[in-house]
UniProtKB/TrEMBL annotation:
Domain Ionotropic glutamate receptor L-glutamate and glycine-binding: 235-298
Signal peptide bounds: 1-16
Name this protein carries in UniProt: Ionotropic glutamate receptor L-glutamate and glycine-binding domain-containing protein
Domain of life: Eukaryota
Species of provenance: Parnassius mnemosyne (clouded apollo)
Length: 695
């Protein structure tokens, strides 16, 4: 009797398990049919490039030959995961398969896993490391564990998803099992509880409502409010304050408003906590991020505006739109306090030109002296060959009478150089030399002097008529040679210079300081202690801001609201923007990581750029700043003592050299000439005649 009971119990158990198995097989067969209809619908109305199938051993029989035979020919990747595998840290083969599917550009993911927790961990892993294309189309089994509060952020990124919920037949035998097709309620915000939205119902091999399964949910947000975090950075975002109201404008705000009007959403602007100090934000010791990046990483903001650079650092943390412009990033440097007005006399010619003029002067003076000596010796030779009668005095008198006129000018080398220099200054010779070779050389030398003097005078006139030249830093080499410190915002900027491949960038990194407050940087620049790194337009804004602190620019800043008195800039340096660009960086608008907004927003942004609206908005923002830019007063064709400083220095130098020469002559007269035994103060001419004969 006992054996009979046990057998019956076993038979009952076996029959129950068999029913469950057959029930599961039948359910899987229905799942296969609904997948066939879904994939054919996707392939028919969408560009299905590749399909990634992720399943476990329980649902492996769904993906048999029947499914692929009844669907369009589609490349696919099948990934079978073990039931015990932790997909938040998948094994090597699963990881490589996911990478290959992403590399192949699979636009549809079919995730059929019996364990909802396992599917949730797979989505978290794929989103964190961008191994899953979140903007692709997803087909998943409905599981309540996928909609926990800590997973709500996933359904703001994966919005093209269809959940398949199996319902068995009820009451009437004729009613067959059916599938409920639902999706996330995007773009409606998910609050405390996520409730899926029904799309369609599949029963008996067909869809009941025949709706578009994967409709584009980003075309029309139906007036939903999206959180937009912004950072005040000219010209991307400009905050204007009038009385108690605050208006946010700028290039990126105009772009945002245009995209919002096309996609039908309302942007809600707000600033991150401690925006003035944190700005874009940095990684904290606990692993979180501050500032604007912190709002994007945590998913609190949908869009970020504030001059985000299109760099790998920002791309890793957020999704960036296509660049709408490119900005020149350079340094704001101090102008040198050195006044070079004392160089006025030498400024018309460069160094090599002065060297050439000096060499021509020495060479030409030596040639004049050599020709004069040649004529003097030629006359002496002729006189020696002639036989004269009379006294020596009579011969010397005839010699002096027949001496060529003007040769005494170049007889001595010092006089030759001085008279040659006099011709260079357009001073005529006392007498014209009699030698034809000297006369011809004098004529051609005069032509040279005229051309040289005219060029010098024209350049000198331009220098005196124009304002005093400014001594500025315009190249990276000049910045490195200046030895002043460099600064900018954030440790990422310093890392950018440290990782530079050229020596100049690495030298800048060695003396680079992280400065979060641009006002502090400007105060250091005017004292010649720092060069500040930022975009050229923002540096222009800082330069104008310093010069116009007493003018109300209606910009929300403590130094721009008219409460601060003008600074005394007489003893401070002027600011100068370096003309060389360190790098031209593309600028984009930011979206939260794996945002579904990006594809359509890129389309509208590209159209905005192509029609020239970005350039127009940029000119509108910078026009107000350029209009306040005060140039130094330049009164041309008006001389002052500062411009003639070089002339007075030259005159003072002449006085000094003349005085030194006079003192030397007095010393020579008193200590050398007067102490000579042959010196006679009553016959000085005889003394010098005897001395000349000795020499």
């Amino acid at each position: 009797m006992f054996k009979t009971i046990v057998f019956c119990a076993l038979l009952t158990t076996v029959n129950g398990d068999l029913d469950d198995i057959l029930k599961g097989v039948k359910r899987n067969r229905d799942l296969e049919y609904v997948l066939i209809d879904l994939l054919n619908d996707i392939a028919r109305y969408n560009d299905l490039t590749c399909m990634a199938i992720i399943c476990d051993s329980i649902y492996l029989n769904v993906f048999e030959g029947t499914l692929f035979a009844k669907t369009f020919t589609i490349p696919y990747v099948i990934i079978v995961v073990a039931e015990h595998e932790d997909l938040l840290s998948p094994n090597f083969y699963t990881l490589e398969s996911l990478r290959q599917a992403r590399k192949d550009g699979c636009s549809t993911y079919v995730i059929i896993l019996a364990n909802g927790l396992q599917a949730a961990r797979l989505l978290r892993f794929g989103d964190r490391y961008r191994l899953l294309e979140t903007r692709a189309k997803y087909i998943m089994l409905y599981d309540i564990r996928l909609f926990k509060r800590e997973l709500h952020y996933l359904w703001k990124r994966i919005v093209n998803v269809v959940f398949l919920r199996y319902h068995s037949k009820i009451f009437d035998i004729q009613n067959k099992p059916w599938f409920d097709l639902s999706t996330v309620p995007y773009p409606n915000p998910v609050k405390e509880l996520l409730i899926t939205r029904r799309i369609d119902v599949w029963r008996s091999g067909k869809f009941h409502y025949n709706r578009v399964i994967f409709a584009d949910k980003t075309k029309n947000f139906n007036g939903e409010i999206l959180d937009v975090v912004y950072l005040d950075h000219v010209p991307s975002v400009v905050v204007k304050k009038t009385n108690e109201s605050r208006t946010v404008g700028g290039v990126e705000i105009e772009i945002l408003n245009t995209i919002a009007s096309k996609m039908n959403f309302k942007p809600k602007l707000y600033q991150p906590l401690n925006a003035e100090q944190n700005k874009w934000g940095q990684k904290q010791p606990n692993g979180s991020f501050s500032g604007l990046l912190g709002e994007m990483v945590t998913g609190k903001a949908d869009i970020a505006v504030g001059n985000l650079q299109y760099t790998p650092y920002y791309q890793e943390l957020t999704d960036l739109s296509i660049p709408y412009t490119s900005q020149c990033w350079t340094f704001l440097t101090p102008e040198a306090m050195t006044d070079n007005s004392w160089k006025t006399l030498i400024l018309p010619f460069k160094l090599y030109m002065w060297i050439a003029v000096l060499l021509v002067l020495l060479v030409t003076g030596s040639i004049f002296h050599g020709l004069a000596k040649f004529y003097m010796r030629l006359m002496d030779y002729r006189n020696e060959n002639k036989k004269y009668k009379g006294t020596d005095l009579h011969i010397n008198k005839r010699y002096l009478d027949t001496k060529p006129v003007g040769l005494y000018l170049f007889e001595e080398i010092t006089n030759s150089i001085l008279y040659t220099y006099g011709m260079l200054l357009v001073v005529s010779l006392p007498k014209l030399p009699s030698g034809w070779s000297i006369r011809l050389l004098t004529g051609w030398y005069w032509l040279y002097c005229i051309l040289l003097v005219v060029s010098y005078r024209a350049s000198m006139t331009a220098i005196l008529a124009n304002p005093t030249p400014r001594v500025t830093i315009d190249t990276l080499k000049e910045l490195v040679d200046s030895k002043i410190k460099c600064g900018g915002w954030g440790a990422e900027t310093k890392r950018f210079f440290a990782e530079s491949l050229d020596d100049v960038g690495q030298k800048i990194a060695e003396r680079f300081e992280v400065i979060d407050d641009p006002d502090v940087a400007v105060r250091r620049i005017v004292h010649g202690d720092l060069a500040y790194y930022n975009s050229k337009n923002f540096l222009k804004y800082l330069s104008v801001k310093r010069k116009n602190v007493h003018i109300n620019m209606n910009i929300d800043n403590s130094t721009m609201n008219g409460t601060e008195t003008p600074v005394n800039t007489e003893m401070q340096r002027n600011l100068h923007i370096m003309t060389d660009c360190m790098v031209n960086i593309p600028i984009s608008i930011g979206f939260h990581k794996n945002s579904p907004l990006k594809p359509l927003a890129d389309v509208y942004l590209r159209r905005i750029v192509e029609v020239g609206l970005v350039e127009k908005w940029l000119n509108d923002v910078m026009y107000h700043i350029r209009s306040l830019e005060r140039n130094e007063e330049e009164i041309k064709a008006l001389m002052n003592l500062q411009k003639l400083q070089g002339a007075f220095i030259a005159l003072a130098g002449g006085y000094f050299i003349s005085m030194v020469c006079l003192i030397c002559e007095c010393i020579h007269w008193n200590y050398i000439v007067k102490r000579d035994p042959h010196f006679d103060k009553y016959a000085i001419d005889l003394y010098y005649q005897k001395r000349n004969k000795k020499h």
